[in-house]
Amino acid sequence: MTERRVCGLETEYGIQVDGVDDLDVVTESMELIRCYSREDFVARWDYGLENPRLDMRGFEVDELLQDKDETEHLQHDRLRKIPLKDLKSDLILNNGARLYNDHTHPEFSTAECLSLTDLVAQDRAGERIVLQCARRRTEERGRGTVRLYKNNTDFEGHSYGCHENFLLPRAIPFADVVSALLPFLVTRQIYAGAGKVGVEVDHRHDQNVFQLAQRSDFFEVIASVDTMTRRPLVNTRDEPHADPARYRRLHIIIGDANMCEWATALKVGALRLVLELLEAGNIPPMELADPIGAVKFISRDVHRRWQVELADRTSTTALDVQAAYLARARAQVSGRDEETDWVLDEWQVALQSLATDPMELVGRCDWVTKKWLLDSFADAEGLDWGRPEDRAWLQSQDLEYHNVDPQEGLYLMLEGMQDTSVVRLSDEMAVTAALTTPPRGTRAWFRGHVLEKFGAQVRSLNWDSIEFDIDGAIRTVDLRSCVDVDTAAIFNTRLDQAATVQDLLAALTSLATEKETP
Amino acid sequence: MNQEMRDRVPRPKSPIDTGGDGNEESGPRRPKVERPNTDDLMRRMRKVDPDQARRYRQRTGQ
Q1: Does A339 touch chain B (CB under 8 A)?
Q2: Which domain CATH number covers A285?
């Protein structure tokens, strides 16, 4: 049986302030992050182990590509004279998550999670945390409401991500990872897409199209290390945040940010099972003729037939591609545990509903839910999708679907109503707990509880390590081995038993994971 | 897993064209559904500024 491995989500939020058309999103995002704590910001994130230019294919690029707009913005940004650490304002929270300004967007990266229920609760906690920051920032500004959107586009060609991260054995050749994932990732949007009014980047004359996914317009190459332009279907960034000899971190950048908990869980849960198929050498044999063309075609296909051509020039559909992966997953892991069976069953339900009556997925699948709301509103108001001014209003509804304020956001309002078909995997108790509590059984538990217990002595930290300052002596705990369940359990037990940092370091010394820096 | 996850609940009828009527014109179709019984939500949608998305300009992220 394959060991259950950690996964996580990183979500960049869109930011807007009422009445401010020339918002400086860089400094506004920085100030918003700093509203998390009432105390002065202290930079503790250690960037030493980050290198986004390192490619899994065994090389390092000189620089990451930027689009034309961003190249111009960056020239202006350099005039700010704000140190990078201050600008990013990185925070590690007691729930094990990272909250920071990813240059122009507030970003919440969940703690490492083992279960989908933990992942959903942590993701929802992220919504609440950034909302709290926005409300405080609104008070602080005194003028204009700060609004945050859990979406992926401004409808004018500027996209930002919701990335998924999966721990994967390094032993699997990366070329196998790419070939195994391409048909799955290109077609997953039929149940994981968040829906979008209009087309960006190319075919802009087709503005009256309602797409399945927010991100599909933005993918131009099969595989690369870039994430901001010429985006790849499979990202090759090599930052394992674990022992690099044993693991990769699969960094999936094609997915949409989901409001529906069901979609978040199925999006991640199905991909986890596909990774298990990959490890077992059990991937269905198929190759798409044109993955880049297919990802856009499927998203924009108003007839919802979702036909794709295979490399052997035969034709199939996105539904059949997904069904092929599902059939193998069911044969391999059915009955293993409740969560696995939930993923298999709901994956099946999704494909059946999409084939017969997609509206059965209202409250589960974001693009269906959004389309249902928009069509209902258009019908009630007599709006015509073909009329630009009507479509602009529908696009504004699309945006407001993703507003994270439950008093304004269309999805969250729907979720809060009685007798709706919204399916939740978390409950208020779980989300409230996730605001401050890391997922059990993970190194995030260790990280979060170290901060809670010995925070005053933490000098710096990141995903992989924690550095303590003990009366001027710097001691580092290496957490790269702590990604597996057994090692995390040992670390967490020793932390629970330690009364002081010195106790903790002594207890971990025997594990030979501690290194001492001069 | 929450038991609620397994429950099936009634859904509104589909406004989404499944491509079965032979109409090949592009673009979303006129909805064929009842309005959702969510008056508060409809009121909120009417208050959304039609230019909200036009004013929503972001910088490229990852």
Answers
A1: yes
A2: 3.30.590
Residue of B nearest to A410 (CA): B41
Task: Examine the domain organization and report whether A417 and A470 are in the same domain.
Answer: no
Q: What sign does the CA torsion over B36, B42, B48, B51 have?
A: positive
Q: Is there a single domain that holds both residue A35 and residue A102?
A: yes
Both A238 and A373 in one domain: the answer is yes
Instruction: From chain B, pick out residues whose CB is under 8 angstroms from the CB of A398.
Output: 53
Those of residues 440-499 in A touching chain B at CB distance below 8 A are: none
The reply to whether A2 falls in a domain is: no
Is A102 annotated as catalytic? yes
**In Å, how far is B56's CA from the nearest CA of chain A?**
6
What is the number of structural domains in chain A?
2
Mean pLDDT (10-residue bins), chain A, 518 residues: 83 96 92 94 89 92 85 82 91 97 96 98 98 98 96 96 97 97 98 97 78 97 92 94 96 98 98 98 98 98 97 98 98 97 98 97 97 95 95 98 98 88 95 98 98 97 96 96 94 97 93 51
Please pick, among A102, A123, A405, A464, the residue that the annotation labels catalytic: A102
CB A129 within 8 A of CB A36: yes
Angstrom distance (rounded) from CA A287 to CA A436:
44
Query: Hey, are the CB atoms on A158 and B57 less than 8 Å from each other?
Result: yes
**Residues A114, A32: one domain?**
yes
Measure the CA–CA gap between A149 and A365, rounded to whole angstroms: 18
Smallest CA–CA separation between B39 and chain A, in Å? 10
Answer yes or no: is A371 within a domain. yes
State which of A432, A454, A484 marks the end of a domain.
A432
Of A297, A330, A327, whose CA–CA distance to A315 is shortest?
Answer: A297
DSSP state of A511: T
| Contact residues, chain B, for A410 at CB < 8 Å | 41, 44-45
Domain that holds residue A491: 440-516
Write down which residue in A413, A432, A451 finishes a domain: A432
**HSE (side-chain half, CA atoms, 13 Å) at A500:** 5
Contact A417 B44 (CB under 8 A): no
Q: Give me A99's structure tokens.
A: 């909250």
Instruction: Based on the fold, state whether residues A461 and A406 are members of the same structural domain.
Output: no
Q: Is residue A1 part of a domain?
A: no
User: Are A427 and A493 within one domain?
Assistant: no
The ipTM value here is 0.91
Q: Is B57 on the interface with A (CB under 8 A)?
A: yes
**In this complex, is the C-beta atom of A12 within 8 Å of any C-beta atom belonging to chain B?**
yes
Alpha carbons A25 and A14: distance in angstroms, whole number: 9
Which residues numbered 25-44 in B keep a CB inside 8 Å of some CB on A?
A: 26-31, 33, 35-38, 40-42, 44
**Residue A295 and residue A458 in contact, taking contact as beta carbons nearer than 8 Å:** no
Q: What is the DSSP letter of B56?
A: -
Q: Using an 8 Å CB-CB cutoff, list chain B residues near A420.
A: 38
Q: Could you list the pLDDT tens digit for every one of the 62 residues in chain B?
A: 444 443 333 344 333 333 333 334 343 443 444 445 678 899 999 999 999 999 999 999 99
Q: Are residues A426 and A506 in the same domain?
A: no
Q: Do residue A446 and residue A388 come from a single domain?
A: no
Q: Which residues pair with A308 in a beta bridge?
A: A316
